[in-house]
């Protein structure tokens, strides 16, 4: 494990046959954002190492987080937020979806995952869906939740259209498209994803960053980061502020 306490790298290796069982899990966190915050300094944070990068090399997407004393919060507020990825993909209806244009000025939660994920992806979508339902209807209508597949070969528009309402909520937007485009978009916000890998036993293993990034409706920048352990209650506590573009 790295001794550099200022680096955050959270990714999961998940495998399983279709509808199958969890495969192996890679080390999830080199140093959590909570540890960084507890140090009380401004730190550079790389959120996931893209596939093929030299071990130990800095990620091309870097954000800054402020130090602070409250390490009980799920949210990490970034001092230097990410620009929204320039992604033009296909939604569950087979229509072109321009992420920047169609979520402009709207509070947006963005997550990269896949439908055959045995645990982290459906749990993340479920937690956000539970939290969303606790909002007033007007705020529910404002919130955009976008799920971008990391396994587009299997996750067709139709497959996403069946899985996402069950795992999360019918209001969520599912996107698929060319893997290289998706991978580049994820890297632009510091999330590393690898092409799904088929094992000798027939199981499929996929490595992907497990972060949810919240984009402000006032700036359209990704200014808040959530890890895979964020609960529905924690999302519920933060969503009212995120919808206003405020720090949680």
Biggest sheet strand order reads 4-13-12-7-8-9
Shape: globular
**SS-derived structural category:** alpha+beta
Summed over residues and divided by their number, the pLDDT gives a mean of 79
Question: In the CATH hierarchy, what is the class?
Answer: Alpha Beta
What does this protein look like?
The protein has 248 residues and is α+β, with helices and mostly antiparallel strands. It has one domain: Glutaredoxin, CATH 3.40.30. The protein has 7 helices and 13 strands. The chain has a 6-stranded mixed β-sheet. It has a 3-stranded antiparallel β-sheet with strand order 1-11-10, with no helix packed on it. Strand 12 and strand 13 form a beta hairpin. The protein is globular, with a radius of gyration of 17 Å. 44% of the residues are buried. The N terminus is likely disordered.
Give a brief outline of the structure.
The protein is α+β, with helices and mostly antiparallel strands.
Mind sketching the topology for me?
Blueprint: E1 11-16, H1 33-39, E2 43-46, E3 62-65, E4 76-83, E5 88-90, E6 96-98, H2 99-102, E7 108-113, H3 120-132, H4 137-142, E8 144-149, H5 157-167, E9 173-175, H6 179-187, E10 197-198, E11 204-209, E12 212-215, E13 221-226, H7 232-244
Parallel strand pairs: 7-8, 8-9
Antiparallel strand pairs: 1-11, 2-3, 4-13, 5-6, 7-12, 10-11, 12-13
